[in-house]
Write a structure and sequence with these properties.
Length: about 120
């Protein structure tokens, strides 16, 4: 599991939610005219559960609102317009949410040690 994979799962959460609810093992969906696919593995199911746990553990109303809208598949622009935050504050909070999901994936043992070492320090 990489950071890009967790970001993809967060971005396509609505599709993955439907597939897990129905019990599908393979998921194909269209974004624009492009066909995308994802296989529902145990890693995807665990990441899905981690995202729900992070959402449920959040106590700040506006952060929870932001996460709910991200998971619903709303665009960043529409979320920013409905929240009392500036653009850079929104993206910083979104990045912290994605980082928190990745840290939880690390704690659950989904991320390889070599991948953690290869991540740049910014």
């Amino acid at each position: 599991m990489t950071q890009e994979e967790t970001q993809f799962i967060i971005k396509r959460y609505t599709f993955i939610d439907r597939a897990i609810t129905v019990g599908d093992e393979e998921l194909n969906f269209y974004v624009g005219n492009r066909k995308n696919g994802i296989t529902i593995t145990e890693e995807v199911k665990t990441t899905y559960a981690i995202i729900r746990e992070v959402f449920d553990a959040e106590t700040n109303f506006w952060i929870k609102y932001m996460i709910r809208r991200i998971l619903r598949g709303d665009s960043d622009v529409s979320i920013m317009r409905s929240m009392p935050v500036m653009k850079n504050a929104y993206y910083a909070r979104k990045q912290r949410f994605e980082c928190k999901v990745l840290m939880c994936c690390i704690a659950k043992g989904l991320v390889d040690y070599s991948y953690i070492l290869s991540m740049p320090i910014d």
